[in-house]
Amino acid sequence: MKTYLHILLACLLTIAATQASAQTKFKRRGRFVEEQIEKKEEAPSYSVALEQTAGCLPVLAFRKQTIQTLHMVKMYETIVEVATLDNAKGPVYREKVEPEVVQGELMQGERYTNTKTIDGEPFANETFQIGGIDYTTDKDGRVTDVHQKLLAPFDPIAHNTTEIVITHATLGEKKIAITRDLLKKPTAVRKAVDENAPPTYDVLESLGLDFTQLRQNGKDGLIISYKVPESVKAGQIVNVKIDVANHGTLPIGTVLIRTFSREPWLDGKFFYFGNIAPGKTATFTREFTVPEKTTTEVSHVAFSVWNLLGSQPEKNQTFKIVRK
């Protein structure tokens, strides 16, 4: 019996000693190791831009896009600290700490998302609404503004910017801002970019026209020829074409011609030419829509000419258009 009691007492003492100096493992984050992708999401979208071209018809270019969102997590080493607990010195007494890197085990840290836009091929043969009107892109993903809808907002002389809303049936709405700078400074001033603002394009630059202010200008030698219809029908769409040439020895800066008429359908149209170097020519055409009803049988329209040095009244010309 005594032997049994001795054995039991020894066991109890061993358990007590073990509990008095137990070891506890604490896990913590160590050095940064890598970033991992937890989830990848992709959504179809599109881009629209005012394309660089030549002539007098603005062109909008559409491309397919993919909006890719990556859900990321930072991964760190897993460190194990082994602490010895001694009840005699408190419930959490670290007598000795031995940090160890756990091989093959990483610990998750901060999470964040990374979104990027991936450009694709031209968005060909697709229908978009531009300013509330349906247009279908060609095989190259372009819409040519044959009726010069993008020029019309700038016919009022004081209106130098406009916003265009583009809508797709399933991919939603996009906006672009279009500006018109008739007196472009030689050195552009960079402005802070607002990430939430729509992309901005200058309509004159997109047509390949140079309206940069020149240090040396002339006005002599400007030759202008007009192609104006002599007669029109009600509801007819007609074009007026103007050709200019510089036969002088100096550049003629920012050449601009505007119509004036009592008839609203003829009044206030701008023809843009920009800087014309000596020996160079330029052409610009605008579209006019004859109204269905009018009280006049004969319409008069005057063309006034400007350049960087001011107006050239001696170059102004008036035409008469008869209703058939």
Commentary on this structure:
The model is unreliable at 15-21 (pLDDT under 50). It is built from two helices and 18 strands. With 324 residues, the protein is mainly beta. The strands form four sheets. Strands 11, 13, 14, 16, 17 and 18 form a six-stranded mixed β-sheet that branches. It has a five-stranded mixed β-sheet with strand order 5-4-7-8-9.
Q: Which series of helices and strands comes N to C?
A: HEEEEEEEEEHEEEEEEEEE
Residue-averaged pLDDT? 88
Structural class by sheet pairing and helices: mainly beta
Beta-strand proportion: over 45%
Oligomer: single chain
Q: What is the gyration radius calculated from CA atoms? A: 38 Å
Low-confidence stretches: 15-21
Count of DSSP E strands? 18
Shape: elongated
Number of helices: 2
Termini gap: 136 Å
User: How much helix, percentage-wise, in residues?
Assistant: under 10%
Brief characterization of the structure:
The chain is mainly beta and 324 residues long.
Descriptive key words:
6-stranded mixed sheet, 18 strands, 2 helices, elongated, 324 residues, 5-stranded mixed sheet, mainly beta
Write the layout of secondary structure elements.
Blueprint: H1 2-20, E1 23-50, E2 59-84, E3 97-122, E4 127-130, E5 133-136, E6 142-144, E7 161-168, E8 172-179, E9 200-202, H2 203-206, E10 222-227, E11 231-232, E12 237-246, E13 252-260, E14 270-276, E15 281-289, E16 298-307, E17 310-311, E18 317-323
Parallel strand pairs: 8-9, 11-18
Antiparallel strand pairs: 1-2, 2-3, 2-6, 4-5, 4-7, 7-8, 10-12, 12-15, 13-14, 13-16, 16-17, 16-18
